[in-house]
Design goal:
By secondary structure, the protein is mainly alpha-helical. The longest helix has 20 residues. Helix content is 84%, strand content 0%.
Length: 50
């Protein structure tokens, strides 16, 4: 956890903003539904329902 204390504040904020940007771009391209469907199918297979 020393990495977060030693890194510069603007670098951490830049990384967080880049992550948010990529999430928004993926959702705008319709990938949100694809990922959600895969996650649901994995959960159902692990529980044994599907």
């Amino acid at each position: 956890m020393d990495f977060w204390r030693n890194s510069k504040r603007h670098a951490w904020i830049l990384g967080a903003l880049a992550g948010i940007l990529f999430l928004v771009l993926g959702a705008a391209q319709g990938q949100l539904f694809v990922i959600w469907r895969k996650a649901v199918m994995i959960c159902l297979e692990c529980i044994g329902i599907g």
